[in-house]
Protein 1
Amino acid sequence: MAINAGMSWRSHAFLIVCLVPLAHLATARERQIIPPVLPDVFRGNNLARHGRADPTEKIFNVLDFGAVADGKKDSAIYFIRTWIAACRGTHTGKSRVVIPEGTFKAGPVIFQGPCTCAKPIIVEIKGTVLGANDLSLYEEPYWILFEKVDGVIVTGKGTLNGQGSSVWKNVESCSGSDCSPLPSVGIVENSKHC
């Protein structure tokens, strides 16, 4: 930056006072950026405890309700049947829906309440859940929806794979009002304590 020689000393002083606080920006790339300190909202909570079944919980495994871990057959209806049994079935104690290891394909799924089981109801994902890549299956813009559920915990080391790369081609070639939005995952509506 050039400073005009015809400027008064007050103008120079003003520029220096204004520009010195900005000097640190020039070397920001050379320094390590430290993220701001945020409050620990989980302080005191043992988040790992949800990954282990409580001996008082009843386990509802999606395989027992007909889901197939082949990555091809749509298991959405079997996920829903498992949820209904865990959430609103005859069991009133603690419930855990388990999606075990393996690859499950599932189109749109609504996990709907209210639940009659004890809170919280836990959904544990151990395997991989593949979203359906046929966008015509999605009447609404969601893939997985928790609706009217009071107290749900989603946990596990599994994967939710919406197969975005396989459906992006549909969006890229789409134009006008006939385009559907890509479905979202993990939407929670009219629910509490999630």
Protein 2
Amino acid sequence: MAKPGYVKPASTGLAAGLNRGFIVTRRELKSKPSYRRGRKSERVALVREVVREVVGFAPYERRMIELLKIGSASTFKRALKLAKKRLGTHRRGKRKRDEMGEAIAAMRRKDAVMSIYWQSFWQHMGHALVSDDKYLPSDEAEEDRSWCPRLFLHCYRLQFKDVRSEPQLVICPLPPDLKAALGKVGAADASGHSSEVLFDETSWQWE
């Protein structure tokens, strides 16, 4: 089979030789769908990306990811063997193994980014769940409370008197994800490590 871009030389009109044959005018043939075999179009790539996003990995792909995460030479070979059995050829298996390796790298990059995010999220200059004066020296706690609006919105209620001298209470409830995180660390349990005393009159449990 000729390589892509190959142009056959013109015939010499002789019955023998490298370019033998009648001199003819070649017709321009329309491209066939089979010419594009093995090439991924933008549409196919988009459809596969959407399917992967919605459905996730196939069972054999998840098994390959488990093997590749181990990282040993034997599991690397077993992942290739599994891909070859599922996909039929050695080349397809190697390509699938490389694809799963890239997927693992993407997962680790995402986990690293989220780890950095949560580390900064839990730092004392932006603690969104509990009052920082429980964990910080008094001077740092005062400074932190003075400029961190997220801390105020998540941990405190604002009570004041309006123009009629009637008491008003402004409540800013916790987002569901942060509320669930508090429940996991035991803040919703009065007997737990993070009890109701931690929040006193500003508890999110009273929302």
Protein 3
Amino acid sequence: CSRAQAAFMEGAYNRVLSARQTVPHSTYVYYMDLLEKTVR
């Protein structure tokens, strides 16, 4: 379970949004963008 996933499940959406800044590889940015749209 990733930190972003755990934060999403806990409702800590500010942590989900900040996780986008620390993605391990540039290919994750696309998925983090989708997750950001879902959270907002």
Protein 4
Amino acid sequence: CAEVARTIGCYAAVLDSIVFTMVIPDSYDMVMALGGNAVLSGAMIGAHKFGMAWGALVYYTLLRMFPEIWRTWAKSTLLLCATFNLIGTGTYAAVAALSVNGE
């Protein structure tokens, strides 16, 4: 069981790194197209990572308060996380589309 947990943890860390590095190449051009500057580009990158950290902290706190939550509410938790991921991705895509269209 420890081997499975370690494998899933490594997989999650790789996915987090991949998703984080996807924001970096586009942020400067996108922010500049929207009238921002390099500082705002860095803030956008930081906001992305802050959102990931905030979500992890919330779930960590829930796990500490309710240790069985991952067994009893696993499906609901995954659906909630997927919903927030879709909202974040949709927002990022909408802003990217606005920056391309110059609006």
